[in-house]
Amino acid sequence: MRLSRYFMPVLRETPAEAQIVSHRYMLRAGMIKQAAAGIYSWLPLGYKVLRNIEKIVHEEQQRAGHIPMLMPTMQSADLWKESGRYDAYGPEMLRIKDRQDRDMLYGPTNEEMITDIFRSHVGSYKDLPMTLYQIQWKFRDEMRPRFGVMRGREFLMKDGYNFDLTKEDALHAYNRHLVSYLRSYERMGLQAIPMRADSGPIGGDDTHEFLVLADTGESEVFYDSAITELKFGDRAIDYDSVDQCQAVLEEFTQRYARTDETHDAALFDQIPEERQRVARGIEVGQIFYFGTKYSESMGATVADETGAKVPVHMGSHGIGVSRLLGAIIEASHDDKGIIWPEGVTPFHCGIVNLKQGDAEADAACQALYDALAALGLEPLYDDREERAGAKFATMDLIGLPWRITVGPRGLKNGVVELTSRRTGESEELPPEAAVEKVAAIYGVIKG
Ligand code: 5CA
User: Fold this and answer.
1) Which parts of the sequence belong to the Aminoacyl-transfer RNA synthetases class-II family profile domain (predicted)?
2) Cα dihedral 111→114→120→124 (10° resolution)
């Protein structure tokens, strides 16, 4: 992409309404535009990152054996009356009447609809286990939408639902989700800590929230600092192996880590004092085993081996896809702007031409651009007639992790400059070597 032909409405001024850094930078970098309170348009740069996050979520869900599908955002109230949640949900549910005066709603979540799909088509234990998921917009009429995409009213969520014959099988599905979430967040450059959460009125303690530590987080968290040393990494895992998934769950949940809702001061005090941490966190996902709550009230049963009809054991598992943009920026920025982790960056590399219109500099930039594109990488080439300082400021703000700077002086010596956004360190090297280095960083060629 050439910046002169792109649509990236960068703001010079800091918008007054933005209270936290991720919201400020998303507005300033021209990633989003507010359409109404808690409702945003995704401008091209923001949309690109959103799609990258979705892609990671899809890949990791399917790696775990979960099946993608898509349900509508608009739902009929009937199913919710059946489960009993239509009245219980309260003012957070956006209720709408259609022209026939039928009660409709914009889905805040999809347990009812997926249970209805399941009961219509599945009748035997032989079809289990099954986990279906979607990435779809949700609407919750939050009392106080704030912090940009962090607490929106319309937001994008991955919601997955497992259907299993027994509680044991459903807990394996729960563990599979935990593992797939650990992998997903790490690929996005995040450390998200599973913390024991509050299951609310449903009961049971099989629920964990995943929290990214950040001062601006809305949840207060208490944890043993030893947990931050855990890394999932790229270890191989067999998602069908009950033991392997259970071992990961134990490894990642044996240390104390809870939100204020489930915090237990007596247990916390047993951690060595130097490892006790009280901090804030952003909830980027939640996994939840709720047993037969919906299958019983909505009659989602299967025939077991004896032919008896039994309600299926279910769980639901969410990832805050649009919230993740805010969480990643909160976790990775400096006073100049965003610093995208390589896994989600909207463009792999920036190219800054210090002397636009200089035949040699223009040609060198074009050659770099073509070489990167030929490797399947997407560079953003700042080809505008702008001062170098302004170009650098824009690149720093939008946070591409790597920048190649091209100027007549370097070219005389046969070099360009490759700069890391994260460390600020630069090195001079021939253009071909810069391309190779960037390609190796992204794993498209061996370094
Ligand atoms: N049905 C379950 C999981 S499928 C569910 O709805 N869980 S949830 O309420 O915890 O939402 C899942 C994730 O969506 C949360 O962890 C959070 O990351 C994200 N989320 C929830 N509310 C909002 C909101 N108002 N704005 C942005 N993201 C949100």
Assistant:
1) 33-341
2) -90
Contact 237, 248 (CB under 8 A): yes
Q: 319 C-alpha to center of ligand 1: Å? A: 7
The minimum-distance atom of ligand 1 relative to the CA of 157 is 14
Contacts of 41 (CB under 8 A, 6+ apart): 32, 33, 34, 35
Q: How far is the CA of 159 from the centre of ligand 1 (A)?
A: 9
**Ligand 1 site-directed mutation target among 177, 188, 286, 314, most atoms within 8 Å of CB:** 286
Residues 52-75 have pLDDT tens digits of 999 999 999 999 999 999 999 999
Strand blocks (E) in 24-77: 32-36, 39-42, 67-68, 74-76
CA of 38 relative to ligand 1 center, distance in Å: 14
Indicate which residue's Cα is closest to atom 16 of ligand 1.
285
Number of Cβ within 10 Å of residue 56's Cβ equals 20
pLDDT at 15: 87
349-441: what CATH class? alpha beta
**Cα 143 to ligand 1 centre (Å):** 15
Fold of domain 3-338: BirA Bifunctional Protein; domain 2 (3.30.930)
Tell me how far apart the alpha carbons of residues 187 and 341 are, in angstroms, rounded to a whole number: 9
**Is any atom of ligand 1 closer than 6 Å to the C-beta of 320?**
yes
